[in-house]
Amino acid sequence: MIHSLFLINNAGDLFLEKHWKSVISRSVCDYFFEAREKAVEPDNVPPVIRTPHHYLINIYREKIFFVSVIQTEVPPLFVIEFLHRVAETFQDYFGECSESTIKDNVVIVYELLEEMLDNGFPLATESNILKELIRPPTILRSMVNTITGSSNVGETLPTGQLSTIPWRRAGVKYTNNEAYFDVVEEIDAILDKSGTTVFAEIQGVIDACVKLSGMPDLTLSFMNPRLLDDVSFHPCVRYKRWESERVISFVPPDGNFQLMSYHISAQNLVAIPVYVKQNISFFETGSSGRLDITVGPKQTMGKTVEGLVVTVHMPKVVLSANLNATQGTYNYDPVTKILVWDIGKLNPQKLPNLKGSLSLQSGAPKPEENPSLNIDLKIQQLAISGRLGSFISVGCDSLPAGPCDKALLLLTLF
Amino acid sequence: DSPKNKNSMIARGKNASDLFPAVVKNVACKNIEVKKLVYVYLVRYAEEQQDLALLSISTFQRGLKDPNQLIRASALRVLSSIRVTIIVPIMMLAIKEAASDMSPYVRKTAAHAIPKLHSLDPEQKDQLIEVIEKLLADKTTLVAGSVVMAFEEVCPDRIDLIHKNYRKLCNLLIDVEEWGQVVIINMLTRYARTQFLNPNVNESLLEENSEKAFYASDDEEEEDKKAEPATLAKRKPYVMDPDHRLLLRNTKPLLQSRNAAVVMAVAQLYFHLAPKAEVGIIAKALVRLMRSHSEVQYVVLQNVATMSIKRRGMFEPYLKSFYIRSTDPTQIKVLKLEVLTNLANETNISTILREFQTYIKSMDKDFVAASIQAIGRCATNIGEVRDTCLNGLVQLLSNRDELVVAESVVVIKKLLQMQPEQHSDIIKHMAKLIDNIQVPMARASILWLIGEYCEHVPKIAPDVLRKMAKSFTNEEDIVKLQIINLAAKLYLTNSKQSKLLTQYVLNLAKYDQNYDIRDRARFIRQLIVPTDKSGALSKYAKKLFLALKPAPVLESPFKDRDHFQLGSLSHLLNAKAAGYQELPNWPESAPDPSVRNVEVITLLERVTTLTSIPDWSKCSSRKDRKEKKVEKPFYSDSEGESGPTESADSGNCGGGKEKKEEAGQDQSKEASRGECREVEQSSSAEDRKRGRKAVKNQKSASESESESESSESEEESEEESEEESESDTNVRKKKTPVLKQPPKQSKKESKKETQEMSLLDLDDYEPAPASASVTPVNFLSSSLVSDLEGLSLTDTILAPTTLAPSGSIKMYELLHRIKGEGLAVEYCFSRQPFSPEPNMVAVQIQFTNNTNSETKNLHIEDPRLQSGMRIREFAEIDVLAAGESVTVVMGIDFCDSTQAANFQLCTHTRKFFVSIQPPVGELMTPAFLTENDFKKEQGERTSALSRFNTHSCPSDCSFSSKHLSFFSFYVAVSL
């Protein structure tokens, strides 16, 4: 299974290594560097690299390459999934997963890696258990630790690993029992030049923050489960119950987790909330171009569109952009050739517009085609899938008699 | 020095080994963090400083005896991680001890330690296999994943170790942690490939058969069979092994896992094992993975590409999910193109081509090149669009981007080779291009085209050669070779115009730096230029050069990858990785399925180990929880509805009942544990037949009660008849009506076992009702008996069968003797169709009058039922004499719910409120099926279930539950 792990930053510095079996020289990473160089973009590094004696499986996250060394046959997804889990754990512990935080917390990182794998086979990957083993750092605790000399390592050993519910720690107690569910939906759509939808789908996740005492057993049901095209669950969800009754029944982990993700692919259902009028043209002579983009609301169901960001991947020959935005700020990165226009809130009365000229590399031929636009936006309090509707009823099957007899369940939807 | 510093040194890859002695001293430190850090350090450097590492061993040995399971586990973990050969015996001992530890967590650690020891000292393999065998028998989900991992690493070829644990693994699978699931599923895929038959072997036959069988009654079926013995003899109809089905069914929900590796593992299992019709369900899950991280996408797309070649239809509905986004990394784009190309067919080609057209405009040049190649492949595969594609490609020739043009040239060359006659103008057009195009591959392609079809362009060809001869020295090698080729071909067809040019080119080539070119020139000169001593070959030169060449077949690079297990590293690399286990081919005939049968006693043992784990529960509440867990395995439980199916396929349910009851008992844990161990050991020596019996036993265990007559010989003969039926499917067909009996028979056979089991503390078994001999209804209708007689069965078998009382059917008390003032009423579910109303469950009620006076006018009054439920009362009993008992049958339609039916039972003097609540298992209709019927029904069942899911109207409800019963019953029979 997983032999060693190397963390490499974008600049190609190897800043952490961990071996679960015998030590493998870091020179094995030379093969990775070679591939990295060939790929130009960090995205294009092949996830699996073959070397004479080892296989390198790597992921790229938060500007860090997680490179694992494999010696024998193992499902590549197994390793990839695990590496992502490692990155998520770091994020969970330190708030972000970056080179500096990892370097700052190198001891905790090391302890975590030690607990997560045994002899290359995953041991404890649930954050609930890990947090019992190794407490996440907080400012207060690190202060107390330096004064008293105590440590981040849990004094008592976790019990979660022993139960049949490995994702939940035992003995949880809250004075306020609450559970929050957030439904986050994303539309993924490809529009062609004329604005017709080529492809659209909705992806949703339900994030939960459950703070309930004891061993609560929750159920969550949908008004219209038929809409859900495809779902995947946190392991705490009972699959059989879902299959037979379309009810999500689970004993939640403590704290934040992603309960489920779903997918709705009905094309006609998807109403794209904004429209974009764009006109990007390049002149045959004079090595310049013109850009004119207007964004307007389409079907927002009375809600305001927020966090609107338009990203344009410009052709390579575009050197700089001299634009004028009626709203928000724009930024053109001449290295990556990406134009980002951060609009913010969409005002339906006064439509934001970005206009101006582009200067091209002189002598280079006119770019062949118009660049593609990516639009990101946020709408609070609206589920695009619409008909899934006001749907969640949470039943508490067995709430233990905690400090308060009747558990208070708060729901925040969307 | 704080150990923290040292570890950060390790993390940065610096050598901290000179501090070793100082650190090792800390190993006995009380502070847990220091201890852990020291462990990390120790494990890292022990290999280099073996002697010093030995100093710490005693600490761990002490730890191994610690009363706290977690300390035992961590001691074992570190001990086994120290790679020092001297301590191998100590490790071996520790592992063996830990493997029989009471805590499953320690056993899990032991399983983890096995591969460590194996890699340190492979000579221990045999001993380790013993440990693995022992741990494989473990019933906890915690251990399962780890031990299978150890199995895969140490002895993946010992498939025989899996047999006994196969069903258990299947049933536990859903509760195992994610990583273990992946390993287990991969292993089971391999296992299934060796043990079961290929479900796709004779699909066509199956289809036509089931078509008929669905409408045919049993008798007609019989005739059908006779009518087509020829076909049957030729090809045995495929019957899926119930264990095979079990695996497929238990892995299916895992497609919903959040872990991509699990989903992929299930997908490959279905791809390799499932019947064609069922493979489709994995497509949706795989498409879902495409929304994950790009690395995940990369791996998934590789696998989808392979699958889409073999099972194109599977992904067609998801075509649009493979459309390329401008933000995808190039490698993902190329893979998506591959999939799109594989999916292209006559119906969707126009949309795909339109997509491709947009792709060509992309800025990513590698991707554009790949798109053009994809168009070329579509054109070769789908004849109708060949001309369209060709035209499109020709248009691309005027593209300003040289790379696009070059790539198009290469692709056009391949396409033209298929039908050169009609396209001489394209060739002419391309000949003009040669002045501009610099990409060697494209130039070479054009030259080849002109040379090959120089007869179509007689005027241009020599001119091109002239130009090329001029620039010969500056060309790339690949172009030079093609120039020589062109020269040779022209020389042969048109020697008048090109003789000198050819000579010139050959002379240039003669002094080229590249020996390939020199060789080629020499060879061609000998071959074509007539000299005095030119060999016989030169006569055939024209044939050699201008032979009709077969058009190249453009095929996917993923074409033959499916001989690797999908989802594996080897598949991804298209090369065998170290330690890759070949996916075996399906066997010709299935190995004996009975090897997978297990004894029931081991199940009991599991219960005791689980409940008797000491020092887990410091607080009683947790203990309670744990015991609850034992009753209901956490999420493999299904709150009712899947209960019957489960019981049918593995017999777990029977065990489960006992479990529950036993868990409630307060018993000296240690003692009972030891006892069970002994029993288990002795029973494991039992022969195969016993094992078979035991399985039946499990099924009946939940309701087994004491029995009357049954003789050993009868058992034997029954066994034999069943065995025959299993070995020969044809025979089985004929016997299907007979095979109805096994459940009943088995109950009889269970008698012996029951007694044996009661040696254990099974006082929770139902006390035998005094009147067990009351035969409820006629178990076998007379027509059935005559059916049976028609078959070649001996009377010895028949006799006990017809007599077979349903004594083992559980009697429930409806009215106690005292409460009923002397009238005792018991009821049972006779499991017979209730003839007046097929929807109703037949409830057999037995009245016993214990008073010394007559009871009169026994009847039902005032039923209070849930909506939809109905009762068909029994005919009023006029008189029940003192001491007498009488049995009647009533029908209740429970509407497939487990709601109780309440009603009043009236005598001439009194009224009693009673209620009948059905256990889930009793709501089934028994149905008798042949295999083909079963197949058909099963298909129906899945569709019915899905309908059930969407509409959930009552009629569908009952439909599906009835079909469930088909299934469970079928399994019961085939065991």
Automatic annotation (TrEMBL), chain A:
Cellular compartment(s): Cytoplasmic vesicle membrane; Golgi apparatus
Biological process terms in GO annotation: intracellular protein transport; vesicle-mediated transport
Membrane topology category: Peripheral membrane protein
GO cellular component, one term: Golgi apparatus
Pfam name, any one: Adap_comp_sub
Keywords of this entry: Cytoplasmic vesicle, Golgi apparatus, Membrane, Protein transport, Transport
Entries under SUPFAM superfamilies matching the protein: Second domain of Mu2 adaptin subunit (ap50) of ap2 adaptor, SNARE-like
Keyword Membrane: yes
Gene3D superfamilies in alphabetical order: 3.30.450.60, Mu homology domain, subdomain B
PROSITE patterns attached to this UniProt entry: CLAT_ADAPTOR_M_1, MHD
Record InterPro entries: Adaptor_comp_med_subunit, AP2_Mu_C_sf, AP_mu_sigma_su, Clathrin_mu, Clathrin_mu_CS, Longin-like_dom_sf, MHD
Domain (MHD): residue spans on this chain: 176-414
Family the entry assigns: Belongs to the adaptor complexes medium subunit family.
Protein name: MHD domain-containing protein
Gene: LOC109100656
TrEMBL record, chain B:
Database matches in InterPro entries: AP3_beta, AP3B_C, AP_beta, ARM-like, ARM-type_fold, Clathrin/coatomer_adapt-like_N
Pfam families (alphabetical): Adaptin_N, AP3B1_C
Residue stretches of biased makeup (Basic and acidic residues): 621-634, 656-689, 746-755
UniProt keyword terms in alphabetical order: Membrane, Protein transport, Transport
Keyword Protein transport in record: yes
Membrane topology: Peripheral membrane protein
The keyword Cytoplasm is annotated on this UniProt entry: no
Ranges annotated as biased composition (Acidic residues): 704-727
Region (Disordered): 214-234, 615-756
UniProt record similarity statement: Belongs to the adaptor complexes large subunit family.
The protein's name in its UniProt record: AP-3 complex subunit beta
Organism (species): Cyprinus carpio (Common carp)
Taxonomic placement: Eukaryota, Metazoa, Chordata, Craniata, Vertebrata
